[in-house]
Amino acid sequence: MKVIYKKLGREKAFGLSDYGSNTIVIDSRLKGRKHLEVALHESLHVYFPEKSETFITNTARRLANILWRMSYRQVDNSVGC
Predict the structure, then answer these.
(1) Global pTM?
(2) Would you say 3 and 26 are in contact if contact means Cβ atoms under 8 Å apart?
(3) Which end of the chain offers a freer environment for a tag, N or C, measured as fewer CB atoms within 10 Å?
(4) ∠ at Cα 4 (3, 5), nearest 5°?
């Protein structure tokens, strides 16, 4: 799956998914737990396109809660000031 980061202010969304191209877009300004939840949410849309928005939202939230309690955190490996 390809992941693209960009500002999604005009789209009024935290993330987008495209099942056909196996791609998700995540708002580049998201951090922490919200980033995790949106990444899971959009990934679930790609892998389970037939599922309802309610199912996707609830499943992403539950998975994010589990991973967060397991101390999952994104590490910033970028170089710079």
Answers:
(1) 0.89
(2) yes
(3) C
(4) 125
Cβ-based neighbours of 55, under 8 Å, separated by 6 or more: 48
Structure tokens, 3: 């992941």
* β-strands 15-18, 2-6 pairing: unpaired
Give how far the C-alpha of residue 6 lies from the chain's centroid of Cα atoms, to the nearest Å: 12
Query: pLDDT tens, position by position, for the chain (81 residues)?
Result: 999 999 999 999 999 999 999 999 999 999 999 999 999 999 999 999 999 999 999 999 999 999 999 999 888 766 555
Q: Count other C-beta atoms under 10 Å from residue 42's C-beta.
A: 23
Bridge partners (DSSP) of residue 23 are 2, 18
